[in-house]
Predict the 3D structure of the following.
Amino acid sequence: MKGGNMGNMMKQMQKMQKKMMKAQEELQAMNFEASVGGGMVTVTANGAKEIIDVNINEEAVDPDDVDMLQDMVLAAVNDVMKQIDEKTNETMGQYTKGLNMPGMF
């Protein structure tokens, strides 16, 4: 009986692992977008935290104020990365809730 419980638990763990992998794949395929400065700078990234597009409105390009443009790009990148982290924690947290597993999401 004890062995049967262990086998059943292993099957449950394998099911959960498959669900986690599917959820992670879905997250990585998602696109996230952050826009700052009223749309002056827009950054798009995928769930794998790869920047896939940066769009800078030509009105944001002021040779006399490069610092402002740099700040807007930085803010947009930080915002999009925060969105990805939040969605990852929300999605993957349902699998790790109550577990103390270092290195997991």
User: Anything to note?
Assistant: The chain is about 55% helix and 15% strand. The CA atoms of residues 75 and 97 lie 31 Å apart.
